[in-house]
Queue: 3 jobs
Job 1
Amino acid sequence: MIQHKYIDGICLGGGIGAAALVIWLLLFGRQVIPAATAAPGYVSRLFDESRVHTIDIRVEDWGAFVARAEEKEYVPCTVEIDGTEFYQVGLRAKGSNSLRLIGEYGLSRYSMVLEFDHYLEGGNYYGLDKLSLDTSFQDNSYLKAYLAYDMMDFMGVPAPLCSYTWVTVNGTDWGLFLATEEPEEAFARRNFGAEYGQLYKPDYRSLSAENADVALRYIDDDPDSYPNLFDNARFSPTEEDKKRLIAALKTLSTGENLETAVDVDQVLRYFTVQVFVMNWDSYLGHTGHNYFLYEQDGIISILPWDYNLAFGTYALGMPNPIRDPNIIINYPINTPAEGSVMLNRPLYHNLMQNETYFQRYHAYFDQLLSDYFESGRFETLVRQVEKRIAPYAEQDPTAFCSAQDHRQAVDTLVELCLLRADSIRGQLDGTIPATLREQEERPGVGVDASAVALEDLGDFDDLRAAREKQEAALEAVLSEAGN
């Protein structure tokens, strides 16, 4: 029993103080207690873009992890981010074609996933449940994904946060990676609030299959007809969730009353950027994947993902890959894919059949060109980021290219984007053909891009040349572990 001659006064004072605190919080608490939708702690930490961050991955057997990377199985690790340690974090390699090709070329620099709640329920990095480390595969500039996400954000499309980080493995240098917020619970909460909807990452099981669900085509009312959607849900969808999504796809298929099923404005903004960056490893490409689908209250929208093969450098899976920079940089904005692909991509095609939406799509292109490119914002941003990451790119022990190749790739990407902006400006004002048919009727009309060497952005020759360097970096990690 507590004995104090002033105990009654203390208790009374404590009670009054507690009551006052409750009243104060009720009246003013919203000013100091972050709401569930307020910016979580990870936004101002790892995703502070003003500097290059540090991540040390401590794993028991790095050699075994690299050797079994293509299995994409998780292993536990300790992660130190900017000096703060996190234990029992799930680590695995990520990717599809990039994962396969890195293995085929005998390389070891894989993109990776760090999942903080894989082994520990509720585990997180200041509110973030999962992040990925992008290896910049076939991207000698290290800038493709960064720029694509920045453009999406600029146009008001919910996009993953990203920042550059210097990765070490068990204290030994491994390279410069792009840390990216993975779209899961934290991403959904940050962008859509505590009562967020359903999130899917549609993906094909086989390229030879029809994959109608990946293309967001309505098949029938049976959820079992959409395995590439529902088997790739980020959250566990209920039967009602499935019915709502199927109903939205059914409405989309009709081309009528689209605003009852589609967040039209957001989707148009997304396609504006998507078409600008010429990303054919995407919904508008032959594979039709590499995007996220968000649904809430029966309204669907599309979210950006995976841009290492953007800016005209995608060739995997295409029957006749486009190599001519004049064709790529002048690629038409009104028919950004072949007819057989366009007709099977209702989220783009059916919206563009509506004249009001079509004109809004053009208006968003005008906004992107005027405010992002023609204003000088784009070049300023690129040169700022280039200066920030240059020292790290120069000493990257597992880089797919040399420091000189990196500098050349940055300059090439800048030139490509500015020429692409000039071409689209011409397409908007009618001086350059804006459809594939018009281009056939007026061959050779467009900006002259013959001086652009697309292979400077990253090619298969770089993979062959990187093998010796990456073998040495792997050996350095393993040797240090042996000591």
Job 2
Amino acid sequence: MSEALAPLPRTVRFGVNHTPRQGWFHSWLDLDLDAVGEDLAAIAAIGADHVRIFPLWTLLQPNRSLIRSRALDDVRAVVDVAAGVGLDVVVDALQGHLSSFDFVPSWLTSWHRRNMFTDPEVVASTARLVGELTDRLAGAPNLLGMTIGNEVNQFSASNHPDPDPLSPSQAEAWTRTMLDAAEERAPGLLHTVANYDAAWLLDDHAFTPDQSATLGAATVVHSWVFDGTGQRYGGRSHEVAHRAEYYLELARGFSRDARRPLWLQEVGAPRNVLEEADVPWFVERTVANVLDCPDLWGVTWWCSHDVSEDLADFPPLEHTLGLFDAQGRLKPAGAAFRDAIAAAAEAPSPAPRGTAVELAVGEDPLLHRSAAAPGGSVFEAWMEASRAGERPTVHVLREHAQARAGDSRTGGAAATRAAR
């Protein structure tokens, strides 16, 4: 195993995923820039330096051959408002899924059903949207980059009610096409792919860890303790407090670039596994623990504002995830995040990590990812080492994976430890 590189001096970026307090993402239908500005000023006031915003695909491209110029102008206007309060912006270029609701344009549904990832006309039209949106934003000095969707990979998942099936090679080709469309219009920015954790933990998922850890300018993770961590170990457990840190180290294990940035692009405090009184503890511990991960680019909290109770059919937790309530008042979670940002300014750069927990995946990307999921052998070994104070990381072991195959949740995939 190669010798660990010395840590580089770094400043971690802190941001917030913006959920508009007025009208949620439906507010793009009748954009109120004054209300947006109030939201963004409140975010800046707690010490955040960037926001991630989510224009809806259905509004940007209501027909496969129609990209609405006015809708692109609206996105640029929000980016400019953010600049006015000192915030940089990341723009999600494809919004197919948000907070349990799908926003897939009508030209991909019912009588017009096509595979969004593999149909050549659909892929070309979608890439055109990514390119034209990026082009409209490229001159903004506060544009950090584009993200490709918000967990759009969920549309391919085997547990989706109406999946768009594809192979890993097709998933990689689609991702490259979308990222290239952004890079061509705004070269050198932080263009990334925003997959949810099935890419890392679901054995049969076509979007793979290797794709997330090699494509785009940074490796993005979305860490949610309602993935079984909170249910299995308890809301105030060591596993819950260290879940995001573990996920970042798992992501690092798949990187082929020793200095590739890691971005905790989504992390939140779900009240379906956390008691309200434990939320400030969770915010503080999560941030403090991920700061011990070398090469951390930033932490972007989910989310800015609670979803209003006036809106129907959301899962109950969506009405509670904000740092601010639906009236714009700072919540204890927001105060904890503000304090964590301030404390991070005094945090030292992390030393190289210690113990390496091995994850055997082989060259076949469909092998043994579930060993890394909550309850899996790799997850358990990492947490055991963490409790012992060993500051573990993950080493992805590709050799001999076939010979070591077995029940990945009971130790069939390697979970041995070796000093780095």
Job 3
Amino acid sequence: MRGGRGGRAGAGLLAGGTVLTALTATLIGPGAPGAAAATAQNCQSPAKTVIATLPWAQTLLAPQRAWQFTTGANVTVAVIDSGVDAGVPQLKGHVLPGLSLDTADGPATADCLGHGTMVAGIIAAQPVSGIGFAGVAPGAVILPIRVYSDTGTTSSEDMAKAIVAATGAGAKVINISAVAQASSPDLATAVQYAQAHDVLIVASAGNDNQQADEVTYPAAYPGVIAVGSITAAGTVAQTSETGGFIDLVAPGDTILSLGIGGPGHVYDSGTSFAAPFVAATAALVRSYYPTLTAPQVKARLETTADHPAKTLPDPQYGWGVIDPYRAVTAILTPAAAPVPGAIPLPQLNVHSPASARHLSLGFAGAAGALVVLVLTCSRLLARGRERGWR
């Protein structure tokens, strides 16, 4: 199992064709220019530089357009990662105590590596006046499940335990920004357990496309949303894994989010940071449509994505680029769910239910005004005839 950052960061262990349950993982890898520097102990330095400009990912997705309908309130998103720094100003009050499976290195609300804090920031960072960056679902609550030690390693067994723990703690969406080269019984069983409890799992696809076009896990398990990475130009990132298991893509190149130990921001790249854009959008949908099941939420995200002009799902883009506004506001027919190769796709009405109500009220008001006009004209005509008007 490997982390989703840019560059190769380790390898899953195989022995004679038999998949070992304990697949080692690492989250340490070369970040994008401007990434916070790591210390000799792999820990990031405190982030003190605040970047006020609006990041390209938030410009592209414009999640604030959906906030008039929902900010993701009442939805818990589990971040299975290196922990989340709960003291970061833009996350204060939105991080639960969580659970650490590696207690020797600290609680789940501490994050030496900074990886989990970046992921959590993309999901639920609070809007602040004068700062362009904010999470896609600022009303959501983060449940940190720490599975990585300060050396950046974990196992598929611990990842499986984390999925079960997140499910038991009430998470409705789970973000996993790490990959394994092969399936394992523990991981597969844990994914099935979460799905049986109506939990939607979103996972990064991985960053080894330049070395080999691999199928990765848990992204490739049925029902899991596998997320690839795109650049600011809209092209699939060179390192992003591709293949038939890709469901959606999201910004993942030179992504700005929260650093640890202060109010500052950092940059990094990889499918690790594409996945939380999708997880946060799922939180928006689960908040606004609380009766939808996890498979229905997945279908909605795919149907409302910005589809490429290709046969779908496409090996590089899947069903397309995640679209938070359309995911919340599109009015879909019951049959409007993705079907591989189905072209054209269902027509979407992007008027929200609220807008539809306003439209109905507008028609009702116009009809009432017309009735008043007709009655007024009738009275005027009657008086005109009495006075001999022509």
